[in-house]
Amino acid sequence: MSEREALASGADHPDHPDHPDHPDHPDHPDTIPISVIPQPRNSHHDQGEWEIRDDSTGDRPATGGRAARRREEKRQEEKRRGMGRAAITLPPMLVTFVAGGYRVGAAQVREDEAATWWAAHLSWSDLGRLLDNTDVVLAPYYVLMHIWVSVAGSSPAVLRAPSVVATAVTAGLLALLGRRMFDAPTGLAAGLVFAVLPVTTRFAQEARPFALAALSVVAGALLLYRALDHVGADRSGGYAFGMLCTGLFHPVAATVVVAYLLITLATERQRTGAWLAVTLVPVAPLFAVLMLARGQNHQDPQGGTDVHALLRLPQELLGSQHVALAVGGLALLGVLLGRRNGVPLLVWAVLPPVALFGLRSYGNLFTPSYFVFTVPAVALLAGAGVCGLAKLLPGRERGAATRQILLGTVAAVAVAAVSLSAFNGLRTDPRPGLPDYQAASAWLRTQTRGGDGVVYSGELDKAMRGTAYQLRAVADPPDAVYVTVSPQRDGTYTGQPCSAPVVCTKDVQRIWLVATAPRTPYAGMTSDEGKFLQTEYKAGTAKDFAGGLRITLFDRLPLKSAR
Asked: Is 434 exposed, middle or buried (0-12, 13-18, 19+ CB in 10 A)?
């Protein structure tokens, strides 16, 4: 109808049926079906997204974007399987807690753990001096342990309790991460595999920051998914904080950021720029800490420098060659069946050790214990491999979840069976090759008397820390006569050495030498200290202990003292 005809027919009047404002007009808002009007999504959907429903076809809601559709499909799939968060997190947590807590205080505190105790038992001012000279990269962990020790004490079980808890929580969060990346049965299988690995129990029973670093990495991945699953930027703060904790508990763990990038690209590629901006937030404090650490004294790497060290890493990290082959085979299957999520996990597991091995000429940080944070990725790949294989088995679609759970449980039990020999090695005290400071110090307590002194040779810092921990409850331990400024005041583990032994040993008739290298009993001493001990004293009673530890009594020569 032309405009002239419409005017002639009165269509320009609101009461005319052809007028757009007439209630019967097809374009009137009241006549548009509610199913085709963009509506806010339900409360359980992501905020800020809209959906278009077509009630006439009964099709599933078409959400905004492929990632949103994937999330909706995953929610519906998990709802059909009827597995809640508690059902998949509690079993791995309980298994990990029991395995890590079993006889947690039976083994003696080892050399590196003694460093944790040393830093934790210092006063705040002395701890500040220590961090000013060494181990500033571990400052958050030492502060945490300082608070913990001041409240709970310093027994071996108490020192290791934070690691036990952190490892158990890691197992639970790993199950949630597997649920988010794959499905609920995969998360459960991954958590159980992680729980029964010897490396999990080993570092649950070690008072060092590696368990907390692994917890931070897994929590960071979950927080990253939480941020990517929501449009608003208010969810990114948790991920940034998790990334900061990851780097502060152990800087090597920050290399997982490459895997985080791949997760972002696979999940929400268009938000890569936002991810980069958020990730840069914790870089400044981490960079500042690393700059402070330059020039400090650090512990020597223990992983070797040749290519054989890299090839041995899987068995050294996972506990044995059999465990490495079993879990590695399942993980390889997970890479093949994990599709787009398998690649970030592979990078998470492989890139950090390979990168640090390649950079060892610039700064050798290649130590197996530094890569504990990669174990959750290996366990998750193993879970993905087992559960992916279960999906391929013949059977009804509705029974796929049951098959996954059964096969995943069987795989975890099999890994535990293969790990039995490695677990037996973990119970050995002291561990092969490590000095038995507990037995040596117990013997020393029965032999010393008032006025005795003690000196150390070999690895001075380890010997002094290990002996100091074992003698911590002794009311009057022998004085370290070759130390003029105490380690506490000096902000080191060894203190200032004596420049005039004749003065430092005045009126000391007996000196006990604690040597970590008996073949070179005076190594680590200054030339004056070693010469004075040999010329002014005579070696007498000596006793050897496991791990190459020897304690020797030196008596002052009467003629020398009379001169």
From this structure: buried
* Residue spans of beta strands (DSSP E) within 430-518: 453-457, 479-480, 483-485, 496-497, 510-515
399-418: buried (b, 16+ CB within 10 Å) or exposed (e) per residue?
ebbebbbebbbebbeebbeb
H/E run at residue 350:
helix 342-358
**Which helix (H) or strand (E) segment is 72 a member of?**
helix 66-81
**Is the separation of the CB atoms in 372 and 317 below 8 Å?**
yes
Q: Give me the sheet containing 39-40, strands edge to edge.
A: 39-40, 50-52, 62-63
Residue 31 in tokens? 């006549």
Report the distance separating Cα 271 and Cα 3, nearest Å: 50
What are the helix (H) ranges across 153-282? 156-181, 184-196, 198-204, 210-228, 236-249, 257-267, 272-279
Contact 67, 267 (CB under 8 A): yes
Q: Going by C-beta distance under 8 Å and a sequence separation of 6 or more, which residues neighbour residue 392?
A: none
Q: How confident is the prediction along the chain (563 residues), in pLDDT tens digits per residue?
A: 554 555 445 555 556 666 656 656 655 555 555 545 554 444 444 434 434 333 333 344 444 456 665 665 555 555 445 578 889 999 999 999 999 999 999 999 998 999 999 999 999 999 999 998 888 888 899 999 999 999 999 999 999 999 999 999 999 999 999 999 999 999 999 999 999 999 999 999 999 999 999 999 999 999 999 988 876 655 788 888 888 888 888 888 989 999 999 999 988 888 898 899 888 888 777 777 777 666 565 555 566 667 888 899 999 999 899 999 999 999 999 999 988 899 999 999 999 999 988 887 776 778 899 999 999 999 999 999 999 999 888 877 778 888 999 999 999 999 999 999 888 888 888 888 899 999 999 999 999 998 999 999 999 999 999 999 999 988 889 999 999 999 999 999 999 998 899 999 988 999 999 999 888 889 989 889 999 999 999 999 999 999 999 999 999 998 644 44
CA-based R_g, the chain, Å: 32
402: three-class secondary structure by DSSP: helix
- Residue 363 has which token pair? 């700064």
Q: 217 and 249 in contact (C-beta within 8 Å)?
A: no
560, amino acid identity = K
| pTM for this model (two decimals) | 0.83
Parallel, antiparallel or unpaired: strands 549-556 and 537-545: antiparallel
Token pair, residue 356, equals: 């640090």
> Do residues 334 and 193 make contact, with C-beta atoms less than 8 angstroms apart?
no
* C-beta neighbour count of 300 within 10 angstroms: 8
Structure tokens at 304: 């070797």
Listed in sequence order, the residues at least 6 apart from 234 whose beta carbon sits closer than 8 Å to its beta carbon are none
- Written as six digits, the tokens of 505 are 């040993």
Provide the Cα torsion 519, 523, 527, 532; round to 10°: -60
Q: Are 59 and 135 in contact (CB under 8 A)?
A: no
334 residue type, one letter = G
Element of type H or E holding 120: helix 111-121
Q: Which residue has the tokens 């398998």?
A: 342
